Amino acid sequence: MTEARLRRLLMTAVRHTWHALNKEREISITAQDVEEALKRGFVLVEDYPDDPRGHSCLVLTWLENGRPLHIVCGLHEDTLIIITVYIPSEEEWEPSFRTRRRGT
Q1: Are 100 and 92 in contact (CB under 8 A)?
Q2: Within a domain: residue 53?
Q3: Residue 32 in domain
Q4: 104 pLDDT tier (thresholds 50, 70, 90)
Q5: d(CA 12, CA 39)
Q6: What pLDDT score was predicted for residue 32?
Q7: 96 within domain boundaries
Q8: Of 11, 21, 58, 65, which has the fewest beta carbons less than 10 angstroms from its beta carbon?
Q9: What's the chain's average pLDDT?
Q10: Residue 17, Cα to own-chain centre: how many angstroms?
Q11: Percentage of the chain surpassing pLDDT 70?
């Protein structure tokens, strides 16, 4: 999945799964917070072209308060689907939050 395609879909059609909406609520953010963070910028962390549910990817962005946020995105037709969101763990991720620590 290319960053350019993600950016284009972000400006046209975004949907959040029920799971994503629940996770957003758990970490006290809104769907709008997620979309605004993505619009400010993101980094493609992992690409999952063979995901059985369809091509998806993991991106890193930052909330307005500076907290890192991981978002798993998928595509359905011409819509960007926000599958889940979470605050990355410092135990599982290197300090940049772009690389998983070995053994996790």
Answers
A1: yes
A2: yes
A3: yes
A4: low
A5: 12
A6: 97
A7: no
A8: 65
A9: 93
A10: 12
A11: 99
Q: Please tell me what DSSP assigns to residue 97.
A: S
Helix (H, G, I), strand (E, B) or coil at 47: strand
CATH number for the domain that contains residue 79: 3.30.2310
pLDDT for position 1 = 74
CA 94/CA 100 separation, integer angstroms = 6
Beta-sheet strands, E only, within 1-104: 14-16, 43-48, 56-62, 68-76, 79-86
Residue type, 103: G
The neighbouring-strand residues paired with 11 are none
* Total structural domains within the chain: 1
Domain membership of residue 73 as a residue range? 3-86
Predicted confidence band of residue 3 (pLDDT cuts 50, 70, 90)? confident
25-76 per-position pLDDT tens digit: 999 999 999 999 999 999 999 999 998 888 999 999 999 999 999 999 998 8
Phi, psi of 13 (to 5 degrees): -150, 110
What CA–CA distance (Å, rounded) separates 67 from 16? 20
Contacts of 103 (CB under 8 A, 6+ apart): none
